[in-house]
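Weekly sync, protein design subgroup
Attendees: M.S., D.O., the rotation student, P.L. (late)

Item 1: inverse folding check
M.S. brought a backbone from last month's batch and wanted to see whether the design step gives back something sensible before we order anything. D.O. pointed out we never logged the input encoding, so this time it goes straight into the notes. Structure tokens as presented (239 positions):
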């Protein structure tokens, strides 16, 4: 698979929706993840990422403008021991709770399906990173309808053991703008990952469509020590 420039990939798509990137820094020392959200409606654009004790949550930038919290207010990132969970919905909590009961990432997601937002049936995308004792691996998942037919839920999980330096994988909800919105197709895209969190954060944020981008989370985890660096960018100020 060809390694893509993620910045160019984002610039070429005005509405990838929500997206997850997971990989390893170019020097091989950092486990890397990023999660972004976008929006077309006032309700979905009215959001910020806020740090929590174990990750981040979405909140209304202006609570007076929040018309429907369903599907837009959730915890995208949570930590469970040496695992970091990253998703585009409240399945973060499902994965956290069931893995805490010794179920696997894949088993946890078998209790969920695509989002109930007909006619889009937005895919649920999820990722998990495991950093322990100087080792690192990750997995990604997508739950989607069968080409827009809600009668069938398609489930795909991709696992990456001993990931290569400078390489990551990118999965997002939509192939582009449309009505209904076309769901992501294929396996996660192979993308290049830099060494510097500032460079990665700025590159991603600047590449996202100016009208539609809302918030961005980026985290670098030192594979040897577990030390974390986190960046959060919000387009809107919290009222």
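Designed sequence read out in the meeting:
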């Amino acid at each position: 698979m060809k390694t893509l420039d993620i910045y160019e990939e984002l610039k070429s798509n005005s509405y990838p929706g929500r997206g997850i990137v997971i990989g390893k820094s170019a020097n091989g020392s950092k486990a890397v993840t990023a999660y972004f959200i976008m929006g077309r409606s006032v309700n979905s654009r009215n959001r910020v990422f806020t740090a929590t004790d174990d990750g981040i949550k979405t909140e209304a930038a202006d609570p007076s403008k929040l018309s429907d919290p369903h599907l837009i207010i959730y915890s995208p990132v949570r930590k469970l021991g040496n695992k970091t969970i990253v998703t585009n919905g409240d399945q973060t909590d499902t994965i956290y709770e069931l893995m805490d009961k010794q179920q696997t990432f894949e088993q946890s997601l078998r209790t969920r399906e695509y989002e109930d937002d007909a006619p889009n049936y937005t895919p649920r995308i999820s990722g998990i990173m495991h950093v322990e004792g100087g080792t690192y691996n990750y997995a990604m998942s997508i739950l989607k309808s069968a080409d827009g037919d809600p009668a069938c839920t398609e489930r795909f999980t991709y696992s990456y053991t001993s990931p290569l330096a400078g390489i990551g994988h990118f999965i997002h909800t939509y192939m582009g703008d449309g009505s209904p919105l076309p769901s992501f197709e294929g396996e996660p895209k192979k993308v290049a990952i830099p060494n510097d969190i500032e460079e990665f954060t700025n590159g991603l944020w600047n590449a996202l469509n100016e009208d539609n981008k809302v918030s961005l989370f980026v985290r670098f985890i030192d594979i040897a020590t577990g030390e974390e660096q986190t960046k959060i960018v919000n387009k809107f100020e919290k009222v």
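Discussion: Helices lie at 6-11, 42-45, 91-99, 105-109, 197-207. Residues 197-207 form the longest helix (11 residues).
Action: P.L. to compare against the previous round before Friday.
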